[in-house]
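Form 7-S
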Amino acid sequence: MRRLKGEALHTVLLIVRREFLTRARSRLFIGGTVVLMALTVGYIVVQDLFISKAVTTVKVGFAGSAQVLAQPLKAAASSTKFKVETSTWSNAADGLQQVRAGKLDVLVTGDAAAPDVAVMNDLDPTVAATLDALVKQVALSRALAASGVDPSPIEAKVVDAGIHLQVLDPNAKVRTERQVVAIFVAILLYVALVLYGQIVAAGVVEEKANRIIEILLSTVRARQLLFGKVIGIGLLGLIQLLLVGAVASVAVLKTQ
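Output:
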């Protein structure tokens, strides 16, 4: 009985070896693995260079007394994820033409404490919030000066003021990233199972069309043949996924 089990196991291992080596040496497998690695590395590089580090550039023009807001806006934008290119216009009408032509995103005119902001479609929320804060600061400085109070020390205190952030769950971001990775891995495994299941089916159909399966079934049992094919192709698919994952890990470490 043990001898029969040993022979069956040996037969399955031979089929596993045959399936593994035959498909591992094929141009389709080698080329597909190289293409998958290249696509993975390319996606990570593109993600790092053009998506994660993308900076939005907003062209803002200033006319009239609102020109005093140009430098503070540019300084405020240096600490955010958008870049501001400022320009000044002696004539507000010329600036409006630039907005209509798409050469300017925003035109700020009028009084610095209550300016008119012209845009073609919509104003970036970050730019809007920054401009609003600067306008309020100008209005406050004027109100203090009109009351006979020197606004300089008050403005210094306002600049130094800020929130004190208390993070209650510092691992929340890491946990979210792990969940995203887990979902991605689950999808990848599902796709791999479907793909390599189709490869197993295609291999059986191919051998049946070539009448090879009749020769194999005359020497081994159908169950042994099926086990050998599933294990061999599954092992090959696992190695392919590990190779792609290793290359992806190296690419991620290099781009950090």
